[in-house]
Each structure stands twice: as C-alpha cells, then as structure tokens.
Amino acid sequence: MLCRIGCLWLNWRMISSKRLGRSFFDRPTLQVARELLGTRLVRMEGEQRTAGIIIETEAYIGEKDLGCHASAGVTPRTRVLYGPPGRAYVYFTYGNYWMLNFVTEREGFPAAVLIRGIVPTEGIDRIATRRAGRPPKHWTDGPGKICIALEIGKAQNNNDLCVHDAEIFVEFGENIPDSCVTPGPRVGLNGVPEPWKSIPWHFLARYEPQGA
DNA sequence: AGCACGATTAACT
DNA sequence: GTTAATCGTGCTC
To answer: Could you read off the pLDDT of A69-103 as tens digits, one per residue?
Structure first.
C-alpha cells in the first residue's frame, strides 16, 4: 500500500513537473537548440529563483564541427561535452566571461547548446543589481551577460540539470512557432573555416513578453 | 616555461 | 564601424 502510494506520488511528480527531463537533452542537438526557445532557464540561489525565457541558442555538434571545442578532442575542458546529456557545460573565455551550455546527445558524443539570450522574468532585482549601470535591454542579451546576471561560473560546470535539487534547470514554456524563429550563422567564429563558420546553427526567437 | 588565441563585452570614433 | 581588456586553455619547445 505504501509502495503504491509512493509510485503514484512519483508518477504525479513526473507528469506535473514543469522541468525538462534528461530525454529532452538526449536528442539531436539542432532539435534541442530549436525547442529550447521559449523555455524558462531557472537559477536557484537558495530558495530564490532567478529566471528568464530563452530566446537565443546555438548548436555545437561533434568533433568534426570546427567551431565546437570538441574539435580539439578530449581535454580537461571538453571532458564534460563527452559526458551524459542534461549537464551544464560552463567554460571561461576572453579572460573575463563564463558561457553556459547544455550538453546534448548520447554519452560519448560531444555536443551542446550555448544559451545566448534570455528575457528576464524572475529575480529582476538581483539581475538589475548585477547588471547595474546598463540599460535593461542589455542585461541578458549575450552569453557572458547571462552568466553575470544569473551568477553562473566554474562552480556550475558539469552540474546535472535533471536532478531534483539542481541549481540550474529548465522549465517548459510557451511554444514558439517557426514564423517567429530566425536561423543564421553562429556568432564569433571568425577564425573558423567553412562550412562551420556559416552553417545556420544559431536560433533567434522573436518573443513578446506578456503585456508588451 | 612560453606563446597565441578565444562560442565576449564595453567603450570608443 | 573599431579596439582594448584579460587569463584559462591547449599546444609547442
């Protein structure tokens, strides 16, 4: 009886959960990158939520993709990319900035989605403090800015997004129709040879926050 | 140990 | 439009 109740409770948790599970990330990276648009990125800081709607993503897929860090093979840094899907890959670049990615596809295949833009929805006061002096329009419109606004750094690298007490996770959001999505080349790959430099693995959503 | 570079940002002209 | 800042990472010696 107790077991039955336990199972029902677990089922209820699964069905009613607003969170994306591991199966969401264990799929082709382009599909994950596209479908992440409109979902909600949540950063737990103790009991407080800081969050925003994801509106811009980029896919980095495998060792053959010369724009992907995994083109260098397994190194201390890229090890996370080869790990199981549904983990955070957080790396440091340009001497100043952290970048948040979600690892995708099966364990052993290195791929991830970079989170490039969100629209803040919760914890606005904390975001405003961390982005002080900048206009709201530029609070979270870049991958480095998102990590500043949500206080994401080295400590979150390799974090599992799909456990109950995750610091970072993603919730289902509203559906973004294809008519509101603009694919294009990935940003910042100037030294990367074609076709990787121009391949349209960047996804930008036109998103109108409620009431605007 | 040394070197070149980077999935950026902010402040310039 | 251009460019400086800044340092971990990966590669070579």
So the answer is: 999 999 999 999 999 999 999 999 999 999 999 99
- Domain layout of chain A by residue ranges: 3-208
Measured in angstroms, what separates residue A188's CA from nucleotide B12's C1'? 20
Task: Give the phi and the psi of residue A79 in degrees, each rounded to 5.
Answer: -50, -40
Q: What backbone torsions phi and psi does residue A43 show, to the nearest 5 degrees?
A: -115, 115
SS3 string, A24-77, reads: HHCCCHHHHHHHHCCCEEEEEECCEEEEEEEEEEEEEECCCCCCCHHHHCCCCC
User: Is residue A30 a contact partner of residue A37, using CB atoms and an 8 Å limit?
Assistant: no
Give the predicted TM-score (pTM) of the model.
0.93
Architecture of domain A3-208: Roll (3.10)
Question: Residue A73: which nucleotide is closest by CA–C1'?
Answer: C10
Characterise A146 by phi-psi region: left (phi > 0), alpha (psi -120 to 50), beta (else).
alpha
Strand C at less than 7 A from CB of A69: yes
What gap in Å lies between CA A151 and CA A51, rounded to an integer?
Answer: 11
**CB burial string A21-51: b at 16+ within 10 A, e below:** eeebbbeebbebbbbbbbbbbbbeeeeeebb
